[in-house]
Amino acid sequence: MRREVLQELLRLAEEEERLVLLTADLGYTVLEPFAERFPARFFNVGVAEQNMIGLATGLAESGMIPFCYSMSTFATLRPFEVIRNGPLYHQLPVRILGVGGGFEYGSAGWTHFGLEDVALMRVLPEMTVVVPADSCQARQALRATWNLPGPVYYRLGKNEQQTVPGLNGRFRLQQIETVRTGEDALVLAMGPPAISALNAAESLEKEGVHAAVGIVSCLSPAPTEALMQDLALYPLVFTVEAHFVSGGLGSLVAETIAEHSLTCCLQRIGVSFIPRGRTGSEAHMNHVAGLSEEAIARRILSACRPGGSANG
Amino acid sequence: MVNFYRIDLQESAPEKKKRVMKPDSKAIRRIILEQSYRAGVGHIGSALSVADILALLYGRILEIPGAEAPHRDRFVLSKGHAALALYAALYLTGRLDETALHSYCADDSLLGVHPEHQLPFVDFSTGSLGLGLAYAAGSALAARLQGSPRRVYALLSDAECNEGSLWEAVLFAGHHRLCGLTAIVDNNGQQAFGYTRNVLCQESLRDRWQSMGWRVAEADGHDVNQMNREMLSFREERSRPQVLLARTVFGKGVSYMENEIHWHYWPMNQDQYQQAIFELERTP
After folding, report:
1. Cβ contacts (< 8 Å) between A46 and chain B: which residues?
2. Nearest by CB to B139, which of A46, A61, A82?
3. Which end of chain B, C or N, has fewer beta carbons within 10 A?
4. What's A279's DSSP letter?
5. How is domain B23-282 classified at the CATH fold level?
6. Which domain holds residue A211?
7. For B13-53, what is each residue's pLDDT tens digit?
């Protein structure tokens, strides 16, 4: 996803002189093409995320469009107050590229897990929050949002190859992209776990469970109308995200259900504990957290058949 | 430096002629005292401490032909709690009207204790310390990228130098030789809950800035002419950002406030206000 986004940035930068790329010392083997093509508009600001966002605030106030690159956790948690007081409050077009949501840096451990970035960004009104599910959608999302007047946060996955079947790169602000239809349950997924969610839904066909799958890539501004329409059609709804269960997609859906008196039952599938001392591959960590394809399928099945076996 | 952008406010705004005057230190201090007394709010000592610095900036240094003029100089009041001194300077240079000035700290006023960018001629909202120099460095970087002649000034407090984020910006500006950036440190030796020397020793400020690639000058922060000489010399600098370490007295001009921590937050009562105005009027 990172490389795809960088290719799009290169294309935009050819036409748009206001575009600048800042990195807090990350992006080795990814950002070089930009640095080589536009050396005057590329700045490694050093390991200094607060300063990166502060600089971007000053740059944007003078009419530039700065993109700030780091890992999702470093790009949002460390400079959170700067984001709030700088680009957000001043309504400036600062773009934050946070790489690696959930356990994408699984073996790097707790400090590198991106588990609350979406919550932190989503809590800020006027902050556009974009979480593409695959590379193709990331490119489309960037095209649709790079020129918005206010700040934008993009949570970008590391995986370049995986694609969500049926998504075909579709991205629209405040919309949900349906990739599978079904009438028993609705599964709403955010980011790359959409692939596991979709596979889980496919695997439940043999159990006679027909689950629809929708991709939520625009977390803010919230796709409220689209959610209301979809949620009204299903008795059971699941959210799937590589994020703490509070503050992200699950919370967004819960808020929508509560505020619009919808009657569906919601189960939030996400990370619900502190993975203290746990490291490993992304697949392993997703397994540990209950975000594997099999675990998602089990959750859906046990909810669809409350009397049946939870083990499918 | 081109002077093309400087405008004569008295000529361009005849209707404001009566109240457009030189933003001298005494006039700034009088407004600080009047407005803080009227509004019943504090941060008086911090504002008095920078009155001469703002008189210098708004009287002789900043080139700001219009609130939105793209090449206007940028000024970031990074020590946002001295906003009342900034409002006074804006008022005295015809950039803020009297009604607005008298709304200081009133409900729904744009003039709060900290500056607000919704107010014309204020480019950055500040208040949380340690962020303003990064904004200013970004602004100076943009000027370089855009080939703009504008210069960028940031006014910091010495206590603000406690903030790690400030030093991130110092390092960046030094490394990138942002010669269009000037910082001024209001070195009054006080912070909200003690004297800086007792909180975190800052005696080597000069060495710290210098070691990070900045040109450093020191001056009496209440001597406008002395500071002006340093600032004019800074304008000739072509390879380094510059910092003026301005030695100031917290609460300068009101004897009972000078160097007293109490006046970081406290408002004046009637007797104190009359005493303060009396002392101010006696000063030359």
Report:
1. 168, 171-172, 175
2. A61
3. C
4. -
5. Rossmann fold (3.40.50)
6. 176-304
7. 444 444 556 789 999 999 999 999 999 999 999 999 999 99
